[in-house]
Amino acid sequence: MAERETVYVALGSNLGDRQAHLAHARARLAALPQTRLVRVSRTEETAPLGPVPQPPFLNQMAVLETALEPLELLHHLHAIEAERGRTRGERWGPRTLDLDIVRFGDRQAERPDLVLPHPELAHRDFWQREIAELEGATP
To answer: Active-site positions?
Structure first.
């Protein structure tokens, strides 16, 4: 079996029942193959980013240990988003569920479909707070 890596996945929702969308995502992350959901941060409401007027987001960070490869995990995340009605339309637009790989071990990648670590990490204070909360927690 492949070695497991620590992965930080950001969860966000600003349409519909935001709490239910995040709960669904947590349950599905915990059920992914070759993956263990280690812990999650508290949820936090934040103002939307970008130029599109929209409701505030409910955000949370999850820590996974996974043997999946980054693109495999990304495909699973997109499937989970689709289960909650996510459609990929307007960039920076509102969404029922948004799941982003923020960090994947120490890996770095720069592909059209995946950049690691996430290029917005340095610009999202709430992600940094959530990661700090998780890194300070004991399992």
So the answer is: 86, 95, 98, 100
**8-state DSSP, 2:** P
Instruction: Identify the CATH assignment for 5-136 out of 3.40.1390.10, 3.40.50.300, 3.30.70.560, 3.10.20.30.
Output: 3.30.70.560
Chain centre distance of CA 31:
15
Q: Is the pLDDT of residue 138 over 60?
A: no
Instruction: Encode pLDDT of 74-117 as tens digits.
Output: 999 999 999 998 877 666 678 999 999 999 999 999 999 999 99
Burial (CB count within 10 angstroms: exposed 0-12, middle 13-18, buried 19+), residue 44:
middle
| HSE, side-chain direction, 13 A CA sphere, residue 106 | 0
Measured in whole angstroms, the distance separating CA 60 from the mean position of its chain's CA atoms is 8
Of the candidates 49, 70, 42, 14, the one whose C-alpha atom is nearest the C-alpha of residue 123 is: 49
What count of Cα atoms within 13 Å lies in the side-chain half-sphere of residue 132?
Answer: 7
Are 88 and 119 contacting, i.e. CB atoms less than 8 angstroms apart?
A: no
Can you give the pTM of this predicted structure? 0.93
- Which residue's entry shows tokens 């969308």? 21
